[in-house]
Design a protein that fits this description.
Shape: flat
CATH topology of the largest domain: Rossmann fold
Bound molecules: guanosine-5'-triphosphate, magnesium ion
Largest sheet: 6 strands, mixed
Strand order of the largest sheet: 5-6-4-7-8-9
Number of strands: 9
Order of helices and strands: HEEEHHHHHHHEHEEHEHEEHHHH
Number of domains: 3
Radius of gyration: 28 Å
Strand content: 5-15%
Structural class: alpha/beta
């Protein structure tokens, strides 16, 4: 670093963390720009390493000339361009920030609204990480207690009862569930809501898609099996971006193309935040409707909003509509407003409250695993082998640790940081 500063700025002494106005010159001494130069000395910098910041006037040509000059000067000491996200990755590896905070840097840059920017800023400040680490400390305490009990097999039951292990596990589970809800809201803020229209063929999914989109985005015919592939369309409800997905009707089929389409429908169900299950009021609970339900149920994610929508009510008399579900006719427009209000309600539940933070699908996955292992302890304590309970607590704690980067599966870092923009 010293040699680079020496050559670039002709031996000028740069006091750490002070702004200096310096001429930047090319190899032959010709002026390129007047720049503000700040030198940060390790560990007091973003990455925790020595950093030289050159703030030049805007414009790609000037930038390129300064970069080229730096590269020539620094080539002897191995200077190179940073990879995407490398500064933030180094900040993480040097312990300046944890992984959730590093991700929040990218989310802050990508934030599409003031609300999501605020939530990302809270994550960057460490609000999310603090909740994770507090919870994890309690999990570790409980595990330590259970492990200590293993050394006194005769007094095991007494220890467990006196230590209120069952109650502590239940409390922790409650906290993980709350965390999961906040994280879900944080994910909606980042990614919007994914609303998937499903049901057996011909019930009017594509018609509803067109109604909600206010445009002819999907083909509608009276032929069952019209939609073969997923069709996506973005709308906005009360500022929350909603991704509508129309899907291929669910039924048993031998047709290869339709089978692929149905598999895609099932995948979309797994990733949905809201499922609109459409039914045809004239064919309620017929064989096809039941087949559709059997295919949908095993794919539903924990916490997904599930709405039953009974379509084509224009075809029956009012007294025949005493059925469970939201009544709709895409033909007359009956019920569309109620359905939109329902979506508004769900989107509103996702509104950030003070203290919420930005979250990603990766975080939700970690929290779900932490929850599952903790649930095993809650359900099993009393009858469960204590070694297994301790192991479940360890797995739960590891899953939470993944969020902040304390425990890391292979390749995760590369995946996260490669999605950053260059220079961050
Ligand atoms: N009477 C009446 N007909 C409707 C209504 N909604 C849709 N339809 C008709 O039902 C038929 C099927 O509609 P689609 O929207 O293509 O149904 P789909 O569920 O997308 O069907 P697939 O793509 O085959 O799975 C069309 O002939 C529509 O005009 C409605 O509210 N009332
Ligand atoms: Mg369709």
């Amino acid at each position: 670093m010293d040699s680079i500063v020496q050559e670039l700025f002709k031996g000028k002494v740069l006091k750490p963390r002070f702004a200096h106005l310096c001429p930047v010159e090319d190899d032959d001494g010709q002026a390129i720009d007047q720049a503000i130069v700040i030198r940060f000395v390790a560990p007091r910098s973003y990455t925790g390493e020595d950093v030289l910041e050159i703030q030049a006037h805007g414009g790609t040509a000037i930038q390129q000339m300064i970069m080229d000059r730096c590269m020539r000067v620094g080539s002897k000491v191995g200077l190179r361009y940073a990879e995407p996200g490398e500064f933030t990755q180094r900040a993480f590896l040097n312990g300046r920030i944890d992984l959730a905070q590093a991700e929040a840097v990218a989310d802050l840059i990508d934030a599409g609204s003031a609300a999501s920017a605020r939530a990302a800023a809270r994550s960057l400040q460490g609000c999310f990480s603090k909740r994770i680490t507090d919870l994890n400390e309690q999990l570790i305490d409980l595990r330590a207690f259970v492990e200590a009990t293993l050394d006194f097999p005769e007094e095991e039951i007494e220890f467990i009862e006196n230590g209120h292990v069952a109650q502590r596990a239940v409390d922790l589970l409650g906290q993980v569930q709350d965390l999961s809800k906040s994280a879900m809201r944080g994910k909606v803020l980042r990614d919007g809501l994914t609303v998937v229209l499903v049901g057996s063929p011909n019930v009017g999914k594509s018609s509803l898609m067109n109604t909600l989109a206010g445009d002819e985005v999907a083909i509608v015919t009276d032929i069952a099996g019209t939609t073969r592939d997923k069709i996506e369309y973005a709308i906005e409800v009360d500022g929350v971006p909603i991704k509508l997905i129309d899907t291929a009707g669910l039924r048993q089929t031998e047709d290869t193309v339709e089978m692929i389409g149905i598999e895609r429908t099932l995948k979309a169900i797994e990733n949905a935040d809201v499922i609109l299950h459409l039914k045809d009021v004239t064919r309620l609970a017929d064989e096809e409707d039941q087949t559709a339900m059997e295919l949908i149920l095993p794919r539903l994610r924990e916490g997904v909003e599930f709405l039953t929508v009974v379509n084509k009510v224009d075809l029956v008399k009012a007294e025949d509509t005493a059925v469970d579900g939201l009544l709709l006719s895409t033909k007359t427009g009956f019920g569309v407003e109620v359905l939109t209000q329902e979506l508004r309600r769900i989107a509103g539940m996702s509104e950030v409250s003070e203290g919420d933070f930005m979250a990603r699908a990766r975080h939700l996955d970690c929290i779900a695993r932490a929850q599952e292992h903790l649930q095993n302890v809650v359900l099993g304590i009393g009858s469960m082998n204590l070694e297994i309970a301790a192991e479940e607590l360890r797995l739960s704690s590891n899953a939470l640790g993944e969020i902040v980067g304390q425990t890391l599966p292979d390749d995760l870092l590369g995946m996260i940081f490669s999605r950053f923009c260059i220079g961050k």
